Amino acid sequence: MNWAVANSHLDTNPAAGVVVTVPDKPQLRDRDFTDCEAGMILRASFGPHDARLSREHAAARRWIPWLCAYGGARVNEMTQLRGRDVRRDGAAWVIRITPEAGSVKTGRWRDVPLHPHLVEQGFVDFVLGCGSGALFYDPARGRNGQAAHPIYKKVGERLAAWVRAIGVVDPDVDPNHGWRHRFKTMGRRAGIDPALLDAIQGHAPRTEGEHYGRYPVEVMFEAICRMPRYEVGISCGSSAPTTAYPSNRELPNARAEDPGAERFYRRRPAGARNAPPPRAGGRDSA
Hints:
Helix content: 25-40%
Distance between the termini: 61 Å
Strand content: under 5%
Strand order of the largest sheet: 1-2-3
């Protein structure tokens, strides 16, 4: 009816001022993924995936859960990512989240350093092999899309459906947004400054003073490196922090899908941060 008034179809809006009071939904659990749910999604990201999937959508399943787990971004900030948005900045590889690529809730760009675990898995090699364009969708397939519902948002919806299909079915946790809540929880567990977590995730500053200045990439990278590594073989009965590194035995499909993963998992640089302890009775998983 507001539209009808704005386009001279009505003189006034008869529904102006009408509101619907809806009771708050009872909260029966935390909104972040449990260790079990996070492990289930990250383990499934390695495949095998349906052979009928497009190359871009298979890549979205492989990488976006890890990007959200280690960066706490909104899912569509990742589905719209382009190769040109990933760059090296000093010691860190950095993702630039920008309204130029698509929708950003705050309307403002921000840089998010990649966790070293993502680099070691081969994400940068994947990006360099894709060129400067969209990483997780084919713009040519979006010819019939609408500006209000672009193709990268459809990728996010399909990821949500996939997460439900693999077993994360609790209606009280969002299949994509659960990563944002979990990132905050894990950051608090690691003792990271709350204002720094907000800056990484693109949350609005809480005070006028926090609008001044910025967090340099090296400061954010140090914080990202403090986030524990995920163990894809995590036990569903465990509530301990996920800090271990996946072993080669757990990654047969990762190697098949991403040739760079084999190299990064087998030859990890000596002295890398967050290095896992050697496995008892066997070689180091790295």
